[in-house]
Amino acid sequence: MTVKNSYPASWYAASATPLPEQPTLQGRIDADVCILGAGYTGLSAALELAEAGYRVVVLEAERIGWGASGRNGGQALVGFGCEQDKLETLVGVDDARKLFDLSREGMAWMHGRIAKHAIACDWRDGHASVPIKSRQERQLHAWQAHMAERYDYPMEWWDREQLRAQLASDRYLGAVYDPHSGHLHPMEYAFGLARAAMVAGVRIFERSRVTQLVRDKSPVMTTAQGKVRCNHAILAGNAWLRGVAPELESRIMPVGTYIGATVPLGEQRAHELIRNNMAVADVNWALDYFRLSRDHRLLFGGRASYSTLPPPNLRGTMARRMRRVFPQLGDVDIEYVWGGYVDISLNRAPHWGRLAPNIYFAQGFSGHGVAATGLAGKLIAEAVRGQAERFDLFSRIPHHSFPGGRAFRTPILVAAMAWYKLRDALW
Ligand SMILES: Cc1cc2nc3c(=O)[nH]c(=O)nc-3n(C[C@H](O)[C@H](O)[C@H](O)COP(=O)(O)OP(=O)(O)OC[C@H]3O[C@@H](n4cnc5c(N)ncnc54)[C@H](O)[C@@H]3O)c2cc1C
Known about the structure:
It contains 13 helices and 17 strands. The chain has 427 residues and is an alpha/beta fold. The strands form two sheets. Strands 3, 4, 5, 6, 11, 12, 13, 14 and 15 form a nine-stranded mixed β-sheet that branches. Helix 2 packs parallel to helix 7 and helix 11 (372-384) packs across helix 12. It is globular, with a radius of gyration of 21 Å. The chain starts with 10 loop residues before the first helix and ends with a helix.
């Protein structure tokens, strides 16, 4: 369902301070940089470049923050969609360490922007990764030790009782608690970046879908009613590109993930659920993730879908999953449910690089983009300004197309996911 302001109906769309509508592109204009997509990636790059004096245009097919940036779970985590040990096998230990340090810089960048532009997005410190099975408990222990030893990134191990003191659920065996990650209101953050970008001089055009990209010394992005000629083009369209750059689309799989928001629980009842107001995620393949909202709702995410159709009876499924974690919420209704696509890469590592020397892209955030997108925007801006070493580190991560091509990648992935879900259920 779409609400009046043309965002999908969600607690975010209902609670964010709205942005004024921006015009649709009409006619031909020139820019130093033209960016496809007004999500966190595009807006972060736009803001950085406008502040450096570039004339920047952003073309958005729908509305600012309409994609994943206005719909996500709001859990802002250091690192990337794959674990560091995966990056070590892909690029070696030294580069994996550099990439992790950059992800911490991305988190700092996000905090810096929230502070500088006074973005009222309700940041809260703290994130717990919670095991359900002993296998997962062992994995989390090993991960915590690895991150402390190799990456100087200490996180706390909480046993069952320590976790129970903060989280009113008996489902989990303990937690790895990361005090540096946390959560925020995703749409307020996207709108805050957009406001800051426009103040810095960025021109954003909404309802201006790019239908064609001419790859040239001066690239051109074409929409239904206009064209932008530029010196540098940036593709930040996530899972929605639809034909603009087929070689990018084959490297990611749009995977549907869904969130439910309960009715307000009242301050006391909400506080009793998550005393320290942290964000929580389990480590199943099709994971549950949850946190509280500023108006004391439980926001509960999960239920991945590998077809592009929304799952049937989503509200009922979300309620069932939520009550598996919090049986005490048996009397509580879910007021909103919504979903969106995450852009999963085959190895879940970020897929950032260039299609040509002056055409940049960042995708493959693999459900881990709230903090990493700011880093992507910052590093693309650095590269446009002539300092590409840090951005190019990401180009060294090898990526492959999904097997089966566009027609068969979904059924193949569905079969693979069924195996992982079965493994979560059995061991
Ligand atoms: C339900 C859900 C829950 C999630 N939870 C978390 C979480 O808790 N933590 C976390 O770290 N990450 C999470 N993510 C992932 C995170 O939201 C994304 O990685 C991040 O928002 C990606 O930002 P982006 O700017 O790259 O893409 P988007 O925000 O999707 O923006 C892309 C924009 O490009 C526009 N666009 C696409 N094609 C065109 C075109 N041809 N012309 C013009 N415009 C175009 C789209 O309309 C869209 O607005 C979640 C994602 C979803 C969907």
